């Protein structure tokens, strides 16, 4: 593996920022991570942790190529984290049950072409408690990870790697000399490095300010509910349209999620709670508000067609971005970190990276 010897400042301590910092540190870089609030406190913590595009045949190849490569990296990635930190991210292949309506022909063709196992089933064959008995699709290899535990494991791993992670350091300005960035300014001091990587999620465009240069990343709110059942009540992920159940080993079930274009408003609403509980009750009558533990919202970094930007800034040689992963930041994290590190080292990439170039001019967000 090629080695880096430079200092880097990573801006943003969500999943993407933490994974990027770790990859740079493992390749010899000296890294400092600046976080405007708390580590993993935004969409990284709020997300469900399904390691698959939902569903993959509805997305362009630029998304599925990156998610599928990242899915292959995940088992080894979390094993190393768990071994080094003794904090288990709870990676598990729980499979995904897809309920109608969906395009069966598109699903069959895509799975065959990409060698993904998918089995036509009756919904009750996989999930006996479900009230909907219908023809469904079973994808047994789909995995999940528990986001809060993954964040804790990554943070501990960065401590072991001697990476500085500094919370409550919001970047307020940049200092420039001769088309090079020389420092980032925060209310509590400046930080200088040879290279800067923006991994600010929904705040990335705001962080870059006048340097955002047609970058199309915007906040998209997603609300979720957490229910508590007995372990084993539900053992597989269940997807119908844009809503899903994610069962955890301890009996908790995540129920999500909304897609709301409301700017930087991360508040929760009664309307979303009622909508999600109503859908849940139709499929599992046992699930009602008495089982509700918590409701929360996160702001995803929305991007055109869910395609992130992983590239060098067109104007500054030492400014990079790894952001805009929209709904799949966790899924894409280990692969995105490798792409960014490879770019810094100038080594060949394992996949076509042209779709992740900066900037993209389309403004449509799906």
Descriptive report:
The chain has 366 residues and is of the alpha/beta class. Helices cover 29% and strands 24% of the residues. The chain is built from nine helices and 17 strands. It has an eight-stranded mixed sheet with strand order 4-5-3-12-13-14-11-15. A six-stranded mixed sheet has the order 6-2-1-10-17-16. Strands 7-8-9 form a three-stranded antiparallel sheet, with no helix packed on it. The protein is globular, with a radius of gyration of 20 Å. It starts with 6 loop residues before the first strand and ends in a 21-residue tail after the last helix. Mean pLDDT is 94; it is low at 361-366.
Which SSEs are present, and which pair or pack?
Layout (H helix, E strand, L loop, with lengths): L6 E5 L3 H12 L3 E5 L8 H4 L14 H25 L10 E3 L5 H10 L5 E4 H4 L8 E5 L7 H14 L3 E3 L6 E5 L2 E7 L2 E3 L3 E4 L5 H5 L9 E11 L8 E4 L2 E5 L4 E5 L13 H14 L8 E11 L6 E4 L6 E5 L5 H17 L21
Parallel strand pairs: 1-2, 1-10, 2-6, 3-12, 10-17
Antiparallel strand pairs: 3-5, 4-5, 7-8, 8-9, 11-14, 11-15, 12-13, 13-14, 16-17
Helix pairs in contact: 1-6, 1-9, 3-6, 3-9
């Amino acid at each position: 593996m090629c080695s880096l010897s430079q200092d880097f400042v990573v801006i943003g301590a969500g999943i993407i920022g933490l994974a990027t910092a770790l990859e740079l540190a493992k390749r010899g870089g000296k890294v400092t991570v600046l976080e405007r609030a708390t580590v993993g406190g935004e969409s990284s913590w709020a997300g469900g942790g399904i390691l698959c595009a939902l569903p993959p045949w509805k997305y362009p190849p630029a998304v599925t190529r990156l998610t599928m490569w990242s899915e292959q990296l995940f088992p080894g990635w979390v094993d190393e984290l768990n071994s080094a930190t003794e904090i288990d991210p709870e990676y598990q292949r729980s499979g995904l049950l897809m309920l109608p309506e969906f395009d069966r022909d598109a699903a069959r063709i895509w799975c065959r072409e990409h060698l993904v196992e998918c089995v036509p089933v009756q919904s009750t064959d996989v999930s006996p408690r479900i009230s909907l008995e219908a023809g469904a699709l079973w994808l047994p290899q789909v995995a999940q990870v528990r986001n809060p535990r993954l964040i804790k494991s990554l943070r501990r791993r960065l401590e072991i790697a001697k990476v500085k992670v500094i919370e409550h350091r919001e970047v307020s300005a940049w200092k420039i000399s001769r088309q090079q960035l020389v420092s980032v300014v925060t209310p509590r001091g400046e930080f200088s490095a040879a290279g800067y990587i923006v991994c600010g999620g929904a705040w990335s465009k705001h962080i870059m300010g006048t340097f955002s240069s047609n970058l199309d990343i915007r906040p998209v709110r997603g609300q979720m509910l957490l229910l508590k059942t007995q372990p084993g009540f539900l053992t597989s992920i269940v997807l119908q349209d844009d809503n899903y159940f994610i069962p955890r080993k301890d009996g908790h079930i995540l129920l999500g999620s909304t897609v709301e274009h409301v700017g930087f408003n991360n508040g929760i609403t009664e309307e979303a709670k009622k909508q999600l509980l109503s859908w849940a009750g139709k499929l599992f009558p046992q699930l009602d508000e008495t089982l509700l533990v918590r409701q929360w919202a996160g702001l995803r970094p929305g991007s055109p067609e869910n395609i992130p930007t992983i590239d060098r800034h067109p104007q500054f040689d030492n400014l990079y971005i790894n952001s805009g992963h929209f709904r799949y930041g966790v899924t894409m994290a280990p692969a995105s970190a490798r792409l960014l590190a490879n770019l810094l080292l100038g080594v060949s990439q394992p996949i076509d990276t042209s779709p992740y170039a900066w900037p993209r001019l389309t403004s449509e967000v799906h």
